[in-house]
């Protein structure tokens, strides 16, 4: 895969931070379903920094900006600078890729979609966006890139990263916005025993599960949360969060979802969609 980032490290554990679905606006005071997304994202980043954990890389897994604004993407970059770590990004269904290419091209942002992480791991970042619609699909080009990357690095354990969800959430309204061709992804992955896990955002809720033998992780948004197991649109009162991941040299993964503790962001529970 072109555009490869090499993180050279001899240590046995690579530490990743995942943040997802900030939904920033042009206007810093704008709200999404009753939550100021700028304030909630800032609080998430503040509490991450207070823990003083030393991450090696940061993954931003889509829906960074809600309204395609220059200001939203510019502010996202500025807010990530204090971490002083490379930030790798993929688009979500709300993102506008021409703006991402324009504004997410300066440190700490990095456009690489193939990450060689230490001596034992790699991450492959896939674009599942179908512009203008909420659901996702991996193009043949993306599937081919994934296959090519796996073939070229058979000795490396692999983390696959995308925006849209593979596993049903048991919420009919949300599952219609899933990855439409997960069966094709499964076909590409099946020959490669080194694939260990799949990571995504999009569903604004925590998932720790399994799909076709792979560990599957989904992560809370940094703003509003969707309530699991609801057939109709439903918001949750759980707080914004993030995910920390440890990739170990034996191929094992340790991970934890954390949520903010020092503030409270409650959505308008009467909203029936967005």
How would you explain this protein's 3D organization?
Fe cation 1 binds at residues 21, 23, 63, 204. Hydrolyzes cAMP to 5'-AMP. Plays an important regulatory role in modulating the intracellular concentration of cAMP, thereby influencing cAMP-dependent processes. It contains six helices and 17 strands. β9 (121-125), α4 and β10 (157-161) form a beta-alpha-beta unit. Helix content is 21%, strand content 27%. The longest helix has 15 residues, at 37-51. The mean pLDDT is 97. It has a single domain, classed as Purple Acid Phosphatase, chain A, domain 2.
Stretches with pLDDT under 50, minimum 5 residues: none
CATH superfamily: Metallo-dependent phosphatases
Shape: globular
Task: Name the beta content range.
Answer: 25-35%
Protein structure class? alpha/beta
* Counted beta strands: 17
Order of helices and strands: EEEEHEHEHEEEHEHHEEEEEEE
Query: Major sheet, described briefly?
Result: 7 strands, mixed
**Strand order across the largest sheet:** 1-8-9-10-11-13-12
Compute the number of helices: 6
Give the radius of gyration. Answer: 17 Å
CATH hierarchy class name:
Alpha Beta
Fraction of residues in helix: 10-25%
CATH topology call = Purple Acid Phosphatase, chain A, domain 2
How many domains, in number, for the residues? 1
- How far from one another are the termini? 36 Å
Oligomer: single chain
Q: Tell me what the CATH architecture is.
A: 4-Layer Sandwich
Mean pLDDT: 97
Domain Calcineurin-like phosphoesterase: 15-205
Function: Hydrolyzes cAMP to 5'-AMP. Plays an important regulatory role in modulating the intracellular concentration of cAMP, thereby influencing cAMP-dependent processes.
EC number: 3.1.4.53
Binding site for AMP: 23, 63, 93-94, 204
């Amino acid at each position: 895969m072109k555009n490869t980032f090499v993180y050279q490290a001899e240590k046995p554990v690579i530490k990743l931070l995942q943040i997802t679905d900030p939904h920033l606006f042009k206007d810093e005071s704008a709200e999404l379903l009753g939550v100021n997304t700028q304030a909630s994202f800032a609080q998430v980043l503040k509490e991450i920094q207070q823990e003083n954990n030393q991450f090696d890389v940061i993954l931003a897994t889509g829906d960074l900006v809600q309204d395609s604004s220059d200001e939203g993407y510019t502010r996202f970059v500025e807010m990530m600078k204090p971490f002083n770590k490379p930030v790798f990004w993929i688009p979500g269904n709300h993102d506008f890729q021409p703006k991402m290419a324009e504004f997410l091209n300066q440190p700490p942002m990095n456009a690489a979609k193939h990450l060689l992480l230490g001596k034992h791991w790699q991450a492959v970042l896939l674009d599942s966006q179908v512009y203008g619609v909420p659901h996702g699909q991996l193009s043949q080009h993306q599937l081919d890139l994934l296959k090519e990357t796996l073939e070229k690095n058979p000795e490396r354990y692999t983390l696959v990263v995308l925006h849209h969800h593979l596993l049903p959430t048991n919420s009919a309204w949300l599952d219609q916005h899933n990855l439409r061709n997960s069966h094709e992804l499964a076909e590409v992955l099946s020959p490669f025993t080194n694939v260990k896990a799949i990571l995504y955002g999009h569903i604004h809720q925590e998932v720790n599960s399994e799909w076709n033998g792979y560990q599957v992780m989904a992560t809370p948004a940094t703003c509003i949360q969707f309530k699991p197991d609801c057939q109709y649109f439903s918001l949750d009162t759980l707080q914004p969060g993030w995910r920390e991941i440890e990739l170990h040299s034996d191929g094992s993964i340790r991970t934890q979802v954390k949520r903010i503790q020092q503030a409270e962001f409650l959505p308008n529970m009467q909203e029936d969609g967005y």
